[in-house]
Amino acid sequence: MIASLSGTVLQVGPTSAVVEVGGLGVLTLCSPGTVAGLRVGQRATLATSLVVREDSLTLYGFATADEREFFELLLTATGVGPKLAQAALAVLPPDQLRAAIASENLVQLCKVPGVGRKGAQRMVIELKDKINAVGLSAEPHTGAVVQPVWRDQVARGLVGLGWSEKDADAACSEVEPLVAADPDTSVAVLMRAALQSLARG
């Protein structure tokens, strides 16, 4: 398996890039977010996943190893192929996908093109245990800390009510001591506390 690719970027397209490795131009299919970080003529390193089919060998490129591992995890779900898995990561980063699956947030999962309610339910059923076992308890390979599920839910709720992401993040920090004191505090209670904090502020 080709786990990563390092070399000079020769070409960048909307959903692909060509990277020169040892004199060979290697085509990798990438999400728009990954492509946005690449510049022609500059060196780049991509985490990669090789998808083998009877009639093709396709290399998918990712900005981080965490994205690649989540891509490969999504492929284990029934009905999820490489294009759908890549679309999911283009719409939602790994931490948000983890949170959506762990909290059974079908509305969030249905934001992915090609994923309907039944498909979202299937993803939750087939991947939730795997997410709980390794996803939320581990840090991504980038070293960034995965946001707790409650924080993601409260922040999304506040943004949905019209608050800015900055204000929502600050309110989550205000109510964090409640979770520290009682890890079983419900999201509804945390949401009310966050709204009270914003009202005071």
TrEMBL record:
Transmembrane segments: none
Principal localisation: cytoplasm
Keyword vocabulary terms for this entry: ATP-binding, Cytoplasm, DNA damage, DNA recombination, DNA repair, DNA-binding, Helicase, Hydrolase, Nucleotide-binding
Alphabetized Pfam families for the sequence: HHH_5, RuvA_C, RuvA_N
UniProt comment concerning the protein's domains: Has three domains with a flexible linker between the domains II and III and assumes an 'L' shape. Domain III is highly mobile and contacts RuvB.
HAMAP family: DNA_HJ_migration_RuvA
Name listed for the protein in its UniProt record: Holliday junction branch migration complex subunit RuvA
Organism: Friedmanniella luteola
The organism's taxonomic lineage, starting at the top: Bacteria, Bacillati, Actinomycetota, Actinomycetes, Propionibacteriales
Gene coding for it: ruvA
